[in-house]
Amino acid sequence: MEGVTAVSEYGVNKLVHLGALVFWLGPALGAWWVLRTVENGSYAPGSVAEKVSRVFYRTVIVEHVAFIVLLVTGFLMATQYGLMGTEWVRQKLAIVLLVVVPLEIVDVILGNWVASTASSKLYAGKPLSPWEKRGLSLYHGAFTKVALLVIPLSVLIIMYLATSKAALPVSTVMP
Questions:
Q1: Looking at the domain assignment, is residue 169 inside a domain?
Q2: How far is residue 103's CA from residue 50's CA, in Å, rounded to a whole number?
Q3: Distance (Å, rounded) from C-alpha 141 to C-alpha 75?
Q4: What pTM did the predictor assign?
């Protein structure tokens, strides 16, 4: 019976982990595409764009909660089931900790505070400071372009590692 319980716990952790992955990647990206489509430089109070903007920034919160769940369940599976010592998990952790987490930290700061606040002011007809304009432009411009390239590539590599359970061949520079 112990084996069945362990498998069931692992299965539940894996299910929650995969569900968090879907909520981390999907809704916010879809909402962002819709927002970029309907805004087109129009920030009229009460407009469809304003409503979509509010939904987008709420979706960003869901994205970040899902990301935390993804990290917690991944850590639980790696530690509780003895996977931490495997090379493929170490490679996943390196990608997550060195690439994805820093991008998400910037996303939390820009998306949940800077851009969200600036967007609310913009739709309320209030003027933005130069700093707020730069933050909004950075979030919806360069930052999102980088994230749209780096995160899917990172996720593909992470998914390969998770499904194959095989480490990527990495040459060593030093003997």
A1: no
A2: 26
A3: 32
A4: 0.85
